[in-house]
Amino acid sequence: MTCNTAEINRQLRKSGYRVTPQRQLILEAVCQLGEHVTPETVYDHVHRIAPTLSRATVYRVLHFLTEQRILAMVLMAEGRLAYEMSGPEPHHHLVCRTCDSLLELPHSVLQSFLRAMETQYDFEIDVSHVSFFGHCADCRSSDGA
Amino acid sequence: MTCNTAEINRQLRKSGYRVTPQRQLILEAVCQLGEHVTPETVYDHVHRIAPTLSRATVYRVLHFLTEQRILAMVLMAEGRLAYEMSGPEPHHHLVCRTCDSLLELPHSVLQSFLRAMETQYDFEIDVSHVSFFGHCADCRSSDGA
DNA sequence: TTTCCTGTTGCAAAAATTTACAACAAGATA
DNA sequence: TATCTTGTTGTAAATTTTTGCAACAGGAAA
User: Fold this and answer.
1) Domain boundaries, chain A
2) Which end of chain B has fewer CB atoms at under 10 Å, N or C?
3) Residue A8 pLDDT > 60, yes or no?
4) Is A27 in contact with A17 (CB distance < 8 Å)?
């Protein structure tokens, strides 16, 4: 995932928010750390670079960037939260409750279904990320479940 | 939602687990408190009846009963967790990120779609509860969003 | 470049959630 | 009913996440 800093910064300023070193560090961290990074992982990463950057700021910024649709919240098994870059093309996950693995679902699989539901319920579904929980093929065969 | 205690107790014992007063109290609480009850709400309720029942037990039992498929975990806005009885007929939610309201989706709306995904990805989707996040009609019209 | 307004941060405390461990108690067995 | 095995609980501490508030700093305007 590329992290177009210039574009994002412009978007934030346009909305009246500020571009701080903390926000830039945290955004870069999520971008570099990959697909589903936890707050603690982000903190470890940025804290090594900027030792005064606090945990509170990590949580606040992750939350903030999610509100701005720059990050997407990813729900892992057991309700644990992670984050990832919210790209222009949404993608979704099948989360295995047993081994915690993620299987990627392309947006196209969901799209027409979601559109139909939106129309039917007059509800604008946020398609930046959806997680379905269950059990993957590997865990089903080994558990005998 | 009826709470068939006898049946549930039998199921637990059959699986080698014990039926304790704590578990019964917590289960009844979720059953009575309705559709999407938070751990703190459960604690407040049961603690009035059994003052020595600890928060740790509430969290542990909610987690345990969810593993046993007796409760279902409901994901509210912002990743907050709640629980409800996991009835024989699953139902799902459209969760408004703005006002936190829940719109019920009957299982039938999802069923055929989920079946198709299961086949395609060899993944057994757990249909006891699914949440979609987004914005309800009211919030969309008032925010101008 | 300096000033000013106010959005942000760090700190520390509060609140929420999880965990280790010894004491307890459910319920199977005799 | 008494006994015994082991699943559960309460306590307290650890960990994770949120929040209040004063100091700080981004960036618009002069």
Assistant:
1) 1-87, 89-145
2) C
3) yes
4) no
B61 touches strand D (CB under 7 A): yes
CATH topology (fold) of B1-86: Arc Repressor Mutant, subunit A (1.10.10)
Give me the CATH code for the A1-87 domain, please. 1.10.10.10
Tens digit of pLDDT for each residue in B71-94? 988 877 777 889 999 877 788 888
Contacts 24+ apart (CB under 8 A), B1-7: B1/B31, B1/B34, B1/B84, B1/B85, B1/B87, B2/B31, B3/B27, B3/B28, B3/B31, B3/B32, B3/B85
pLDDT at B45: 97
Interface contacts A/B by beta carbons within 8 Å: 76
Instruction: Give pTM, 2 decimals.
Output: 0.80
Query: Which chain B residue shows the shortest CA-CA distance from A123?
Result: B136
Probe site for chain B from A66, A119, A132 (most B CB atoms < 10 A): A132
The predicted pLDDT at position B145 comes to: 37
Residue B100 CA, nucleotide D5 C1', distance (Å): 47
Q: What homologous superfamily is domain A89-145 in, according to CATH?
A: Ferric-uptake regulator, C-terminal dimerisarion domain (3.30.1490.190)
Residues of A in contact with B15 (CB under 8 A): none
First and final C-alpha spacing in chain A = 36
Give the per-residue pLDDT at A65: 96
Q: What is the rounded average pLDDT of the residues A97-116?
A: 81
